[in-house]
Amino acid sequence: METVTTSQGRFTAEIAGPPGGELVLLLHGFPLSRHSYRAQLPALAAAGYRAVAPDQRGYSPGVRPDPQELSSYAIERLVADALEIADACGVRGAPFHLVGHDWGGQVAWCAASAHPERIRSLCVLSRPHPAAFRRAYQEDRDGQQHRSRHHRAFHDPRTANFLLEGGAKRLRAVLEAERIPADAIELHLSVLANEAAMEAALAWYRAAGTLAAIEVGPVAAPTLYVWGDRDSTVGPSAAQGTKNFVTGRYRFETLPDVGHCSNEEAPEIVNGLLLAHLASESRTGLR
Question: What pLDDT score was predicted for residue 212?
């Protein structure tokens, strides 16, 4: 474990690859951690990239504002963190490659839309473009409201205790249901299975109000979007509709019989897709 220092504090992170390699910043989702990308980092490093996977705001003990102060967990602040982490890793205002899964994907879409000059390429796992998600949610396509019912539940102040009681048995069960390997589950729990981290992680949802309300414009960055057809949280309408909100080069990959956490459930497939995507948009990767 290493740390990345920004104006907001120190983010715990896993870092691999040559310091001079093109930066690939990888943002995890909920209820996960930097360890989501443990299979991607060595592959990226071997291809010559500088890969950085931080524990994001609230997950990192060194950047954990009071979760009652929801403005500290607003989407704009989460996007700013990503840009500051990239700057601290040496790009200093230059473009970099951005990868996001789940909530990290939401941050990635928002960053690419609001700061197109900073994003060399974009790869998002599971999470559709927010506008595609909002349309599917509002029209309840593929039962998207039911698929997203946990968003509302996370506003309940009893949620952290519910997930963590009994040695975090319910949180563990959630991760097991997503086919995350047992050793990876223990790594995620080492970050998140405490009240301070869990309350901060839930503050992301509470600050957003509802993810369907977040307005995000089109994305011009070259984009790879990967969705597993067994994803219980994202239906096909939201996934397939994402193409309507990307104006740059776009590739949509559906993974058969793969669920929400494709980077952990099918790491070799995801690595192959990601490396090919990066190589087409960079000077560093293998061609």
Answer: 65
pLDDT tens digits, 54-83: 999 999 999 999 999 999 999 999 999 999
Domains in the chain: how many in total? 1
Strand partners, 124: 100, 225
**Whole-number Å distance between alpha carbons of 10 and 60:** 7
* Domain-located, residue 228: yes
In a domain, 286, yes or no: no
DSSP string, the chain: -EEEEETTEEEEEEEES-TTSPEEEEE--TT--GGGGTTHHHHHHHTT-EEEEE--BTTBTTS---TT-GGGGSHHHHHHHHHHHHHHTT-TTS-EEEEEETHHHHHHHHHHHH-GGGEEEEEEESPPPHHHHHHHHHTTGGGHHHHTHHHHHTTSTTHHHHHHHHHHHHHHHHHHHTT--HHHHHHHHHHHSSHHHHHHHHHHHHHHS-GGG-----B-S-EEEEEETT-SSS-HHHHHHGGGGB-S-EEEEEETT--S-HHHHSHHHHHHHHHHHHHHT-SSS--
10-19 pLDDT, tens per residue? Answer: 999 999 999 9
For residue 138, the enclosing domain spans: 2-280
Model pTM greater than 0.85?
yes
